[in-house]
Design brief:
Structural class: alpha/beta
Number of strands: 16
Radius of gyration: 25 Å
Strand order of the largest sheet: 10-9-8-11-13-12
Number of helices: 20
Shape: elongated
Largest sheet: 6 strands, mixed
Length: about 500
């Protein structure tokens, strides 16, 4: 029997003063680690590490090559010495563009998880943008100024307009300094023609979001990421800008880099060695963004994705988990029957308390189970027929702030498999370590949904639930099942269906 858990909210107690949190950003160009101490419910960095890995350089035809994986794992082995000082449940590891695109990402993430002892979350582009904004917003004045935040990464560039700590618009484009270097400056060669093709490609990509992010939409422009901070440093040290990044200063930098024919020859005051082979692409991307959106001046911020992950983790563990708001918003958007959702969540909680310990379900499993319970009927907004499939599609493909790709996929599968057959071919799409916990959560959601129709008419009697290995036993009061023949028949059908996926349902 599991200890009582709040069925509605995540942990809400304040983070203990002096507790440490860690965030690790597995970017396409560099891996970034931050360890921070909580002071007055704010975070103070106590350790930061950055290592150039260029994971994105190993992405070929949608597959991450062995050499890139080994570079990444070697970096993580070094970072582990610092990460071991922080408890795993206070650590988040997120990965971005390269692992989003790599079809074989699980080969890397599983080895990384074994090494670190922490889950590796692959996050969508808009979730990356939200976290970047959160990291930047905590470095700026807390006022009503509307801001455009731009983050140029190794594989993608994020655009956010927000006010205070709330993003208003979020977008992610596949324009990154590593991917553009490989595509437009192959073998390190620089030429005006190559630069022009990269610049024009950026303008075409940005044109699709121009109406939402043009200068008329915001009052302040802030750049985040090593690329933009590196550009700012070059401009300042060469006297091409007094502060920040101006378009005039950027034009002088364009002219300077085009004076070289190869990246190995680049010599500019303020240019670090680890930025040498991506700076030309970074300048082309920056210039294209400035010109397409009408930007004349941008200041930089040291806040970025890793800081955003820390603040998001702090929120999850103390005062607010953004995923709660996301689920509530989805329920409102699709006009979910709140009473039915509450009924299923309450019954899921009962099953979880009875089976969670023996079935080794963790707190994170309960969170995903209750969110799936609350959204199990969102597909009704499309059609009653196959509503479970429609709901799974919505959860799998919607932008859900706070959720990783893996979390969305698991919730989608739970909603899809709440009724009907459980597809083994679909189960094979998720990592092996997640399959058994998923099946067990699916079992609990199916049973909770089954009893939903009884509970809408009458109070369920007290009945026993016990989990043991791959079995789940339900023991009802005498004659209750005989008095509810439809429920009895549905339980018999469940017994047959669950047996096919290795779960033995016993009904007494």
């Amino acid at each position: 029997m599991q200890p009582e858990t709040n069925a509605h909210q995540g942990a809400a107690a304040e983070m203990p003063e002096g507790a440490t949190l860690a965030a690790l950003d597995l970017g396409s160009n560099s891996f970034h680690l931050i360890v921070a101490r909580v002071e007055h419910q704010e975070m103070r960095p106590i350790e930061t590490l950055t290592e150039k890995v260029q994971l994105g350089a190993g992405l070929k035809n949608g597959l991450l090559d062995v050499a890139a994986m080994e570079r990444g794992l070697a970096c993580l082995a070094r970072f582990k010495q610092v990460l071991d000082s922080v408890e795993p449940f206070r650590t988040r590891v997120v990965s971005t563009h390269t692992l989003r695109r790599a079809r074989n990402r699980h080969e890397f993430t599983q080895r990384a998880e074994q090494l670190l002892g922490v889950n590796v979350e692959v996050i969508y582009g808009r979730e990356e943008a939200r976290l970047v904004y959160l990291g930047v917003a905590h470095t700026l004045a807390d006022d009503e100024t509307s801001r455009l935040v731009v983050d140029i990464g190794g594989g993608s560039t994020e655009f956010i307009i927000g006010r205070r700590f709330e993003p208003i618009s979020l977008d992610s484009l596949q324009t990154g300094c590593v991917s553009f270097t490989r595509k437009y400056f192959r073998n390190g060669r620089i030429s005006p023609a190559r630069y022009r093709r990269a610049y024009e490609a950026v303008r075409v990509a940005v044109s699709h979001i121009r109406s939402r992010y043009h200068t008329s939409r915001w009052q302040d422009c802030v750049g985040s990421s090593g690329t933009l901070r590196s550009i700012e440093a070059i401009l300042l040290q060469n006297g091409w800008s007094r502060a920040g990044i101006s378009r005039a200063g950027l034009a002088r930098l364009e002219k300077a880099v085009l004076g070289f024919q190869h990246m190995d020859d680049l010599e500019l005051e303020g240019l670090s060695d680890n930025r040498r082979n991506v700076i030309v692409a970074g300048v082309a991307i920056s210039a294209g963004i400035f010109d397409e959106l009408g930007i004349q001046f941008m200041r930089s911020s040291w806040g970025a994705l890793r800081e955003g992950v820390i603040y998001d983790l702090l929120g999850r563990m103390s005062h607010e988990d953004v995923r709660e708001r996301t689920i509530s918003a989805q329920m409102q958007r699709y006009n979910v029957d709140a009473e039915a959702a509450e009924t299923v969540q309450r019954r899921c909680h009962f099953f979880y308390r009875c089976s969670g310990q023996n079935w080794k379900l963790e707190r994170s499993d309960w969170d995903l189970l209750r969110w799936a319970a609350r959204t199990h009927e969102i597909g009704m907004a499309i059609s009653h027929k196959h509503f479970n499939r429609h709901g799974a599609y919505l959860l799998r493909n919607a932008d859900l702030p706070g959720f990783s790709q893996g979390e969305q996929e698991i919730m989608a599968m739970m909603v899809q498999f709440q009724r009907g057959k459980i597809s083994n071919s679909d189960l094979m799409k998720i990592p092996p370590r997640d399959r058994l916990p998923l099946l067990r959560k699916v079992c609990l959601l199916r049973l909770a949904s089954l009893f939903k129709y009884v509970e809408q008419l009458e109070r369920l009697p007290d009945f026993r639930v016990e989990a043991d290995g791959q079995s789940l036993q339900l023991q009802f009061p005498d004659r209750w099942l005989q008095q509810h023949p439809l429920t009895r028949q549905e339980l018999r059908e469940e017994k047959t269906l669950l047996k096919r996926v290795g779960i033995k349902l016993e009904i007494r």
